[in-house]
Amino acid sequence: MYENVLLFIDGTWCRGSEGDWMPVKNPATGEVLARVARASMADVRRAAESTLTGFRSWSAVSAFDRYLLMRKAANLLRERADGIARLMTMEQGKPLAEALGETLHGADVIDWFAEEARRAYGRVIPPRKDGVYQLVIKEPVGPVAAFTPWNFPINQAVRKMSAAIAAGCSIVLRGPGETPASCAALVKVFVDAGLPSGVVTLLFGAAAEISEYLIGHPNIRKITFTGSTAVGKHLAMLAGSHMKRITMELGGNAPAVVFDDADIDVAVQVLSSQKFRNAGQVCVSPTRFLVHADVYDQFVDGFAKAAEKTVVGNGLDPTVQMGPLANDRRVEAMEELVSDAVAKGATVKTGGRRIGNVGNFYAPTVLEGVSSDSRLMNEEPFGPVAPIIPFTSFDEVVAESNRLPYGLAAYAYTRSLKTANMISSAFESGMVSINHHGFALPELPFGGIKDSGYGTEGGADALDAYLNTKFVTQIGL
Ligand code: NAD
């Protein structure tokens, strides 16, 4: 049952104070599922006030008690995962198995940060003078403003919420209005686990107004955003002008390099399933396929067959492997990217068209002969379109891999340890995966460099983004 989704402000689920609602659509059918409350600026002001109260109470709770509450929230998320996954598929479109995996993964993320909370160690620095104690202490940074997108309604939010809550911060989350129910269900597990009022706030509504207000508000001490590079740069600029700390998880255009000594069957199988996962709407999706000329035809044929075999349809159908694009903007974007590539000389090997006229379905697509000035080879496509290009030399493929300002994810396939080492050190990328897809587990770093942003949202360093370092020196008198 998909019901209307409310805001959560100061410990209460509520409508927007001006009574505004936005429709939530099922991207597989085009039907309106329900409505989501739209926050007014009065609601946003209330959020900015109550988050400070929440921070004051929560930062006084011991790390061990934070850990206990978070473990409870993680278990509630696991218990409710089947129902939440259905909501996610209905609002976002991804197949049910992917939605369930994302929800259960969210529980693992909460567990990871819960445990990290207990290890937010400071240190003692050896003094130059007898009797001096030099202490490094970690303290929560303060109330956080977070902005998360629609492609992974739980996963994008849970990393930010869990890190903030574990560190002893409060958090105002501006969630994705297009996919609000699963994000709200995530907030609810924390509320039901006993999180005090004001520690988590959930808003939906006008992104630009909410972010501009919160970033400038003196109560907010840290900004964290996942989304496009263009928006990330704008928010980083606003945050800079208010001297706020930021974490930016932005877009990518990941090179996937297949050398002539690779296991081509493995490369085709892993890269095609990752390309079409979540209909390509994944920030680390493999994007520019750079394949050695000697194995190019074999790879293209295998990849095109995999694309054609991919079962596309409503994600609630358990046989479906790829759902619709999450909104009609993405279908239009695919049509524009493909026609631009074709106008610049590309050939459509398979796909290259929308499917049907109900829902946002676009065929898994493979393009050959794509010129490097095509938009597809320069922008984040965020859809199920794979341009495959041949290369002949190591230097050439490194130059193409690093040509763009992005630096989020990069992939390579080779049986040679030497080539693997050389390419992983040559990639200008925050994350590199060789011969498999090995990203995004809670214990692993997750983040980009260059225009893909900065800061990690996973692994042992992630909590630090929500902590201040305080130095105390003292001497006994
Ligand atoms: P968009 O760039 O307008 O929005 C991306 C996300 O940022 C959305 O959640 C949106 O609500 C939010 N946003 C937009 N303006 C904002 C602002 N001023 N303040 C705070 N949040 C703001 O566009 P879109 O059509 O939703 O997506 C387009 C592109 O964004 C995609 O093609 C993709 O490149 C990128 N994107 C990346 C990710 C990611 O995981 N890195 C996720 C979603 C979208």
Percent of residues in beta strands: 15-25%
The CATH superfamily of the largest domain turns out to be Aldehyde Dehydrogenase, Chain A, domain 1
List the strand order in the largest sheet: 14-15-16-13-12-17-18
Spatial shape: globular
Bound molecules: nicotinamide-adenine-dinucleotide
Query: So how many helices?
Result: 13
Number of strands: 20
Helix content: 25-40%
Concise account of the structure shown:
The chain is an alpha/beta fold.
Task: Report on this structure.
The structure is a single chain. With 477 residues, this protein is of the alpha/beta class. The chain has 2 domains: 7-250 and 451-473, Aldehyde Dehydrogenase, Chain A, domain 1 (3-Layer(aba) Sandwich); 254-441, Aldehyde Dehydrogenase, Chain A, domain 2 (3-Layer(aba) Sandwich), CATH 3.40.309.10. The protein is 38% helix and 21% strand. It has a 7-stranded mixed beta sheet, with helices on both faces. Strands 9-8-7-10-11-19 form a 6-stranded mixed beta sheet, sandwiched between helices. α3 packs across α4. It starts with 6 loop residues before the first strand and ends with a strand. 54% of the residues are buried. The protein binds nicotinamide-adenine-dinucleotide. Residues 147, 149-151, 176, 207-208, 211, 226-228, 231, 234-235, 249-251, 283, 329, 380, 382 line the site of nicotinamide-adenine-dinucleotide.
